[in-house]
Amino acid sequence: MIVALALSAAVSAALGTLALLRVWPAAGVPASRPLVGALGAGLGAGLSSLLLFAWLLLFGPTRAFPPAEVALLGLLAFAMYRSRRRLGLGTKQGEWLAGPARLLTPIFALALVAAAAAFVAMLRQEPHGEWDAWMNWNMRARMIFLGGPTWRTAFAPELPWSHPDYPVLVPSLVVRAWLYAGHATLLGPGLVAATFALAAVAVLVTALAALRAPSQGLLAGMVLLATPFFIQHATSLYADVPLAFFFLATVVCLALDDRAGGATPRFAMLAGFSAGLAMWTKNEGLLFTACVLAGIVASGRRAGWLETRRRLTHIGAGLLLPSLVVVTFKLTLAPPNDLLSTLGVERTLGRLADLARYGTVARAYAMHLVTFGANGLPGAVWPLAVFAGALGWNPVERQRPWAQAVAIALGLLLAGHFMVFVSMADELVRLLASSLDRLILQLWPSALFLGFMATRTLEEAGATEPLTPFAARSAALHQERTQ
After folding, report:
1. To which H or E segment does residue 378 belong?
2. 217 in helix, strand or coil?
3. What gap in Å lies between CA 439 and CA 375, rounded to an integer?
4. Rounded distance, CA 198 to CA 193, Å?
5. Per-residue pLDDT tens for 414-465?
6. pLDDT tens-digit map of 127-184
7. Is 27 exposed, middle or buried (0-12, 13-18, 19+ CB in 10 A)?
8. Which residues are registered as beta bridge partners of 393?
9. What is the pLDDT of residues 189-208, one digit of tens each?
10. Section 366-393 average pLDDT
11. ∠178-180-185 over CA atoms, to 5°?
12. How far from chain centre, in Å, is Cα 325?
């Protein structure tokens, strides 16, 4: 069983990695094995979820899916072999064993081992996860897996309390793991949770290492691993950590697209694909995608309108496949949303006119934002503010169009959730207490990436050249463009 589950994780990661290798530009952007592998693990899981959903619609939850997926992987591997495409992938080991990174690497490894041990210990305590996993994500997976020809009853409107309209990336991946294992096992949901938690840390570290410096990636990774709520919530078996991964992958692909400078549309398309997978993970992904597009438009003056139009067009192309799956699900399987269906115009307008609700939400935002992290300190935000103040900002990075677009998008996303709380929540105080930290967690890896991209590296603060050659070339190119 464990071998079968390991095979399921390896197949999806290989699918994602090979697909990325097929589209990764041969030159002009950083292409390290760790970065491609980290993105491939999470995006590959999303791709496997789309494949399984299509399989469910055609054949139901049958044991023939794993051999078919392995065969697809074999075809992709054969196509890669025949193309003999060389990307010059590889990160020099010396970059991770020189300068500040030499000291930070063993500390990061220790933090990673400690986080993994905590993950396993908490999952053993609560192998079924927490409440939302029982009533929604894992329950839906069991109904699909055990339903046979009647698997569609998992989305029956008679179960409104279980939110049957929610997208099914997480349940479908749990079903997929069980199809590989041959039966429903508690290790299936745990494997899905571990995949996305590890992938989020890996993408954060490797993307910053490629775009800035290994020391910057290691520092950001340690901050994420030292956020106990991140590890704790991963073991809850909810969909928030997978959603956080797709938010982060979208942001990283936007940064890579900015580095490519219009030379290739592939990173913008990958950003769109990742945003589409966020839509397939939770309904919040719809708001995230809209905010990202709005952020790109709002930052269009700096990027130039032709460049902005190009980016939006290619992001839209990447959105097509996952959007088609989401629309198919919403139209054919999902009942009406239980929250939206009970809203009335008069009731909603009454809430919007209640100034006390704005004050309640504003106070909750202020408290949760400044204390977020559950790390025994006043919060994770304050140490990061001190760190940024000590090192200072990198003026080149913080002025890039992608950075401005992402900052706007994250701000709009928080504002959007603010208005949702004001206009829709019945038990406002209870809902804020139970869900606001989770909404912040969804943004946390992306906010860390943006912050560490805009902050000077330890090498720059020490008046030395950035450790990553690509970062130095990119800064020089940016300076030429702005002159």
Report:
1. none
2. helix
3. 17
4. 9
5. 999 999 999 887 789 988 988 999 999 999 999 999 999 999 888 877 644 4
6. 999 989 988 999 999 999 999 999 999 999 888 888 899 999 999 999 999 999 999 9
7. exposed
8. 455
9. 999 999 999 999 999 999 99
10. 74
11. 30
12. 18
Beta bridge partners of 455: 393
Q: How far is CA 249 from CA 201, 207, 269, 407, in A?
A: 11, 9, 12, 15
Which tokens hold the place of 180? 């590989």
Would you state the structure tokens that stand for residue 323, as one six-digit string? 């959007």
pLDDT grade for 467, boundaries at 50, 70 and 90? very low
Q: What is the C-alpha separation between 23 and 253, in angstroms, rounded?
A: 13
Amino acid identity of residue 354, one-letter, is D
Look at residues 214, 267, 224 and name the one whose alpha carbon lies nearest to residue 34: 214
Query: Among all chains, which residue has been given the structure tokens 């950590």?
Result: 241
Amino acid residing at 130 = E
Q: Dig out the tokens for 51 from the structure.
A: 């494949």
Alpha carbons 346 and 162: distance in angstroms, whole number? 27
pTM of the model as a whole: 0.92
Whole-angstrom distance, CA of residue 198 vs CA of residue 101 = 20
> CA-CA distance, 411 to 408, in Å (whole number)?
5
Query: Among 274, 297, 296, 269, which residue's Cα sits nearest to residue 285?
Result: 274
Which of 239, 238, 426, 257 has the alpha carbon at shortest distance from 348?
A: 426
